[in-house]
Amino acid sequence: MLEEQILDARRHDRAAFHCGEPALDAYLHKYALQQATKGITSIFVLVDHALPEKIQGFYSLSAAQIDAQQRGEADRKKLPKYPVPCFRMGRLARDMEHRGTGVGAMLIGLAVERCLKAKAHVGAYALLVGAKNAKAKTFYLHYGFIACQDAPMTLYLALG
C-alpha cells in the first residue's frame, strides 16, 4: 500500500532515488532536507508501506503568490488586481523504476489534496508549478494546469 510521508533522513533513502533528471536527483540528495529544516519548503515522499525507505516519488510545497497579469483572462476578471496567495510545488519527480505506473499523477493528486486541506485554514487561490521543459509542461497541462500569461513555463491550477 502506498502512502505519503514527510521526508525523514533517518527513514528514507534519498541516495537510491533516481528520476533521470540530474537537477531533481541532486535536489533530493543534497538540498531538500536543508531547505525543509530552514522552513523554506516542505518535502513529501511517496513510499510503499512494505518498503518505507524506498522513495517512489516526491514533491515540495511552499508559499507563493501570483500577479494579476500572469493569470488567465477569465481569472483576471474574477480576482483582485493585486497578487493573490498561492501554493508552489517547487519540485515533483518519480523514481525511474516507477515510470509509467501513475506515480506522477498520484503525486499531483496528493499535492492538490494537501493544498485543499491547508486552504481551509489559510487563504490560497492556486497551486503553481514551474515546468523544467516542454515535456514537463505537457504533463502539467494534461492535469488541468494553465500557463501564466507572461511566463509560459510557469503554470497554475485553481484550487476553487
Question: Explain this structure to me?
Answer:
The chain has 160 residues and is an alpha+beta fold. The chain has a single domain (2-158), classed as 3-Layer(aba) Sandwich (Aminopeptidase). 30% of the residues lie in helices and 32% in strands. It has helices spanning 22-37, 73-78, 103-119, 134-142, and strands at 2-6, 42-48, 51-66, 84-94, 126-130, 146-147, 154-158. A seven-stranded mixed β-sheet has the order 1-2-3-4-5-7-6. A hairpin with a 6-residue loop joins strand 6 and strand 7 (154-158). The longest helix is centred in the last third of the chain and has 17 residues, at 103-119.
Characteristic key phrases:
seven-stranded mixed β-sheet, 160 residues, 32% strand, Aminopeptidase
